Amino acid sequence: MLVCVPLWLAAPAHAAAVRILALGDSLTAGYGLPHEQGFTTILQQAIDKAGLDAQVLDAGVSGDTSTGALARLDWALGDNPDAAIVELGGNDGLRGQPPAQMEHNIAAILDHLQARHIPVLLSGMVAPPNMGAEYGHAFAAVFEHLSHRPGLLYDPFFLQGVATHEDLEQADHIHPDAAGVRIIVARLMPQVRALIAEARRK
């Protein structure tokens, strides 16, 4: 006997796009670059090119420290993201903020996100060399500690492959130029894929 199944039962519902919160400082915000060349725009283009159904939510604020990002986290979460990329620490290092304070702030951000079952990709940072070896070791230890959190996706250094390469930096030798942004995005994409997959499983 032929049984007719209503279309709404036979066809799986289309899953909504995964909303990825990009929480960070000027590196996330695309400081010094036209909007179309900034990190979140290039990341969105890479996601679209890969055929991944995800939307990047730009929550980068130039000049932000980990303290500032923690203070605005609830506001940033107003868009109800399904996943998050956290890129912080550069301004903490430039301002010589205590590494212990930075660890407290970033850990609190991760706690808040994970309490809401939001999978996270944490991208680390390196202290400016002029801060000295002792500060640099303490700064690096923060991200080493945080990297061991269960369920966390971790990228050791956001500017890997770009920092100290003058042909990939803006004139300030801090921020990536357009080519540098593309290198960062290409390097991060395997983990972004994993982040999207994890969000789909939630």
TrEMBL record:
Signal peptide: 1-15
Any GO molecular function: phosphatidylcholine lysophospholipase activity
Protein origin, superkingdom: Bacteria
Classification via PROSITE patterns: LIPASE_GDSL_SER (PS01098)
CDD domains noted in UniProt: Lysophospholipase_L1_like (cd01822)
SGNH hydrolase-type esterase domain boundaries: 22-182
Pfam families: Lipase_GDSL_2
Gene Ontology biological process terms from the UniProt entry: lipid metabolic process
Keywords tagged on the record: Signal
Name the record gives this protein: Arylesterase
Organism: Lichenicoccus roseus
